[in-house]
Every structure is written in C-alpha cells, then in structure tokens.
Amino acid sequence: MEEKGAENGVAAMAAIWQGVDPAAYLQNTYTPPLADLERKDNLLPWVLACLHRAFTEGDVSGELLVDIGSGPTLYQVMSGCEVFNKVFLTDFLEVNRKELRSWLQDEGGCSMDWTPYLQHVCKLEGRQPSAWTEKAAKLRQVIMDIVPIDVHRPQPVALDVLPSAGADCLVSCYCLESASPDLAAFTRALGNIGRLLRPGGHLLLIGTLGMSYYSPGVKIPTVPVNEAQVCASLKESGYTLIRLEVYTLPEYMKVSHHDAYGIFFVKAIKE
Ligand code: SAM
Fold it and tell me: Which InterPro entries does this chain map to (predicted)?
C-alpha cells in the first residue's frame, strides 16, 4: 500500500514535468534576477565558483563525468569538461535532450546563448574571456552522448549506455528535489544515482533549500529539504560528505515563482 503511494507520487511528478517547456524554463531560471553574471552577490557566480573550485582542487579526476538531470542547461559541465575526457549528459525529458543536441550540433535553433557563461568560466580559470570558443569546442568534443534518465528507477540509465566500471564523478544540479515528491523519494534517488558512480568517485550536488514549489511555466510541487536532511540522506545513501556550502538567497532573488530560502552545494564521495 505504502509502495503504491510512493509510485503514485513519483508518477504525478513525472506527469507535471512533461508540461515544462525548455525555453520557458531557461527564461524563468537563467535570466535576471535569478541568474545575473553581472552581480557579484548573485547565485549564478556562486554556483560557477563552487563547481570551478570542486573540479580544480585535484581530488576529482578520472575519465568519465555524468551529469544527472541536465535539463536544457550546460553551465554545470563547463568546468568539468577540462578534467574529464568523457562527459554524458542525461535528462528525463526528450525536449530537454533535443535542446542540448541542438547546441552540441551547433546548427542554430538553441533557446539559450551560453557565451557569457563560457566566458565567465574561462575567467575563473585565469584565461581571457575570448578563450570561450576553445571551451565551447572542448565541451562539444568531450560530450559523448545525451541520454534518457529516471532517477526514481534502481537502474536510472539503460544498461550498457555507460561503461560498467561506473562514472568517476557525478554532477547534478536542482534535479533530485525538484523531481521527488517527498524526502524518502529524494533519498532513494540519491541511492539510485549512486549506482552509476564507482566506489571512491565524487558526487557534486547542487539543490534548493526549503523550496515547496517552483513555476517555470507550470507549477511544480517540490520537496523542501534543509541542510540536516541533505546530510542525513547522503549518509543513508552511502556517501561520505566532504563539505556542504550554503548560499542564502538575497531578498531581490526571492521572486514569486519559487519559495526557496537558499541553495546548497555538496561535495561527497561514494563509500
Ligand atoms: N540541471 C538543470 C539545471 O541546473 O537547470 C535542470 C534542473 S531542473 C530544475 C530539473 C530537471 O530534472 C529537469 O530537467 C527535469 O526534466 C529533470 N527530471 C524530472 N524528473 C526526473 C526524473 N524522474 N529523473 C531524472 N530527471 C528528472
């Protein structure tokens, strides 16, 4: 009975996500005030700096990086593409995978211009912003595939898509809490994606804190998690926390289409 309820909750979330349009999502989430590369106190420079630091500290290495729930976005792999020779992007929705494929194929028709993001990450790496064309080429070179995923399945990606040894690193931004109906599903999803990661591999997880809904066009009920719950879920799902950092949303970012109070960044290792 309890199992059926959990399945219904997950199915309801899946149905809501089917109605989300990538262009509306990008417009709502990756334009000011939520995303503003010009403001030092904005979330986006914080996120890009967290990822840059995590990928350049020296402990994250290997061949294969997998991004979980990529959506229609690429910023989350702009630092990692300099460390890993193989990057897989994943998403639940074909419309998002199509958006990513159109950037990868560089034939126009993308809803988003990622140039300012590429330039910003080049600056973090101590390069000239003009090096963004090289970074874009590098990204296109290392992205091996863009594949379907369902974090609620014990085997989230189809068998044989990823090398059997598992990924050396997973990155995932704003996916688990916005795809899970409750904390139990969030924790199970953390365990499910962990099966894609080799023991000793790293998880870089970014998510919202205290968010009960988000409306990128349609209203999505999300599971509000706090710092203690994230730490407990990680432990229960077989990860050792290296660090958790929190960004508290400034008043100007508390807009009507979400009710989060902050964002967490986690660096963890699979036991
Ligand atoms: N990572 C992107 C970003 O940073 O903007 C997208 C985050 S968006 C808030 C959440 C993503 O989770 C969406 O792209 C959605 O399609 C995906 N998603 C929804 N349900 C999912 C599921 N069951 N398994 C995997 N991904 C799912």
Answer: NNMT_TEMT_trans, SAM-dependent_MTases_sf
Q: Is the ipTM of this complex over 0.95?
A: yes
- CATH for 205: 3.40.50.150
What one-character-per-residue DSSP string does 168-200 give?
Answer: EEEEEES-HHHH-SSHHHHHHHHHHHHTTEEEE
Contacts of 256 (CB under 8 A, 6+ apart): none
The total of structural domains in the chain comes to: 1
Quote the ligand 1 centre to 145 CA distance (angstroms): 17
Take residue 168 and report the two structure tokens written for it.
């050396």
- Residue 78's domain comprises 2-270
| Helical pair 183-194 and 227-236, crossing angle rounded to 10 deg | 50
CB of 96 closer than 6 angstroms to any ligand 1 atom: yes
Task: Indicate which residue's Cα is closest to atom 19 of ligand 1.
Answer: 179
Q: Per-residue confidence of the chain (271 residues) as pLDDT tens digits?
A: 567 778 889 999 999 999 999 999 999 999 989 999 999 999 999 999 999 999 999 999 999 999 999 999 999 999 999 999 999 999 999 999 999 999 999 988 899 999 999 999 999 999 999 999 999 999 999 999 999 999 999 999 999 999 889 999 999 999 999 999 999 999 999 999 999 999 999 999 999 999 999 998 899 999 999 999 999 999 999 999 999 999 999 999 999 999 999 999 999 999 9
